[in-house]
Amino acid sequence: MPLMIRQLSEALGAEVIGLDLSRPIADAEFVRVHRAHLDHHVLVFREQQLTPRQQIEFSRRFGPLDAHPSQGDAHLAGHPEILVISTRQENGKDVGIRNAGPLWHSDLAYRQQPSLGSMLYAIELPDSGGNTGFANMVKAYERLPARLKAAVGERRALFSSTRNLSLLAHHPVFRTHPETGRKSIFVNPQLTKSIDGMAAEDSAALLSEIYVHCQQPEFIYSHEWRPGDLVFWDNRCVLHIADHTRLDDPTYIRHMHRTTIAGDQPF
Ligand code: OGA
Ligand code: MN
Description:
By secondary structure, this protein is of the alpha+beta class. The protein is 21% helix and 31% strand. The chain is globular, with a radius of gyration of 18 Å. Manganese (II) ion is lined by residues 100-101, 105, 107, 240.
């Protein structure tokens, strides 16, 4: 089947049809997938059957992989590149991270070099619920009221890890995509603590106005998972959130493997 790219929503996202990711991808196909990722920010590959090794190999086509700080307790045995996102338990203990995205965020934004993107592969899913929301921060930047753009100016913000407060970094509130040159909003409600050089209340008020703007439906695509979906998003210009409704229900089983591609320092 020839490779096809089909747009998924007005906001962002496209489905890549006709590619079996368990096999090596030809260079010409890779070029198209890479271009589609830059254009649509989120790519969905349906009906994949991937071993951990095959997912790692496809991920590496986009660059070296990042080891997640939580991987000490949530990585897949024998595959430190794979982070387990799961509600499964074994012997009364979570086998992975139960809720990886309680608030809108970009993965590893608290690193000096946050990630380029993440690939999440759905292995087992509940009958309903557990969508992932994706929000287009390029569009959000373009439609941000001038008053808010001016209030931020060239400022940077402080980001820190929720689990490990010693992991922190300062990044521009508005960053420039290193491959497309397009500007986007990079701050997020899960990992951004404050805007540099502002009084705490002013920073909190400004951030909350920016977040309300970013969460408008016109910027959002909500992915309804099917087993075998692999979703690859661009952490440089997309925010995402896990939309769980039944996290405490023991019959709610959602089991996924994530790989994370290393990125560069935002500017
Ligand atoms: C992640 C994440 C969202 C989800 O894996 O980085 O935020 O829906 N996941 O599980
Ligand atoms: Mn995440």
